[in-house]
Structure formats: structure tokens, C-alpha cells
Amino acid sequence: xxxxxxxxxxxxxxxxxxxxxxxxxxxxxxxxxxxxxxxxxxxxxxxxxxxxxxxxxxxxx
Length: 61
Known about the structure:
By secondary structure, the chain is mostly helical.
């Protein structure tokens, strides 16, 4: 019984992997997410600095 479960899980993982690689661009999507997150953090830090929050411990918790 566990062998059948292993094969089923492996097959499901393979199907999901193929679908992700064919239907989308995971590397581009992850790069976009990381880039936007970094840009939002930089913008937020700049806004806080302009508002007079000079303590780095408050800006970077």
C-alpha cells in the first residue's frame, strides 16, 4: 500500500511541475514578486525618513 501512495504522490508532483513549466513562468513571477517587495520596502523606508523617523530600529524592525 505505501508503494502505491508513493507512486501516486510522485505522479502528482510530476504533473504539477510540468503544468507550472508549460503554463506559466515561475522564475519571472518570483523575480517580479521579490523586486516589487524590495521596491515597496525602499519606498516605505524613504517615506518614513521624510516624515522624520530617523531611527533605523524603527524603520527596519
